[in-house]
Amino acid sequence: MLIPNGPKWWWLYLGMSVFLILFAAEIKLPLSETGHRVVEVVIILAAFGLTHWWLNANASELLYRSRRKSRTSRERQSHK
After folding, report:
1. What pTM, to 2 d.p., does this model score?
2. Is residue 2 situated within a structural domain?
3. Buried-state track 54-76, b at ≥16 Cβ within 10 A, e below 16
4. Which residues of the chain have pLDDT under 70?
5. How many domains does the chain have?
């Protein structure tokens, strides 16, 4: 049986860090009020897109961990 290595958390942490840096940099850009709103919306949509991509890419690993954890907790309860 192939055992997954686990979710690639660093992708999620790296992506969210980049988006926070982009938000900080966006404040300094010489844009109109509308321009700032557009950039903010694009950054937020990209963050949601990254999260969606990450969840799809790591779905099998997350499911494996969840099943293993529930199996372990059931075994502990049956031994009591």
Report:
1. 0.69
2. no
3. beeebeeeeebeeeeeeeeeeee
4. 1-4, 75, 79-80
5. 1
